[in-house]
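Page 47, continued from p. 46.
Same chain as before, 208 aa.
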Amino acid sequence: MSEHARRRTWWWAYLAAVLTLLYLWAGYVEGWTWTGLSRPVTLWDWLEGLALPVTVALVPLLLRHREHLGRPHRVTVAAMLVAFAALVLAGYLVPWAWTGFTGNTLWDWLSLALLPLVLATAALWRPPPRWTARHTLLVTIGALVALVLVFAGYLVPWAWTGFTGNTAWDWIKLLLLPVLLPTVVLPPLLDAAEEWVAPATEDRLPDD
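Result:
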């Protein structure tokens, strides 16, 4: 990217940030009704509206540059996830009413975050070159934890899971797309993208 293009990108980013802050100020501070914002509009409402669109917008960028993602990027993502987990815990335990987390169950979080999470990690959804005992152990542990949560949610029952009352059809609707994406849709798309990009990369390589 040229210096001019980089500056233009940052300029648009600054403009978007300023407009967003003005919108929030007009709604939450000034109470302008046309914004649709007020104190009852919580962080949960923002997550419901933005989680999937933001993730979909980031996926092409992640797929394009996944080979260049290094340790600093992983550390940054891990820090953001830890910070968000701390925010969620505070939202429930303090509780912070502005988060809107109180009252939302594990089922609500799965409905909100499962598909965006699958999309955000799309570049990682590829079978390992060689399946080892470690992979089997990780898959087994994940499956056992999921089964324990589901059975306990229905049989104990654990009200915080929000599973009680949800039928098999509800589970199918919840899991169908997140399961199909990494197993059926994404692998051929990633292979096709690599085949499409590879010739262009080879053409740019200097001749010996």
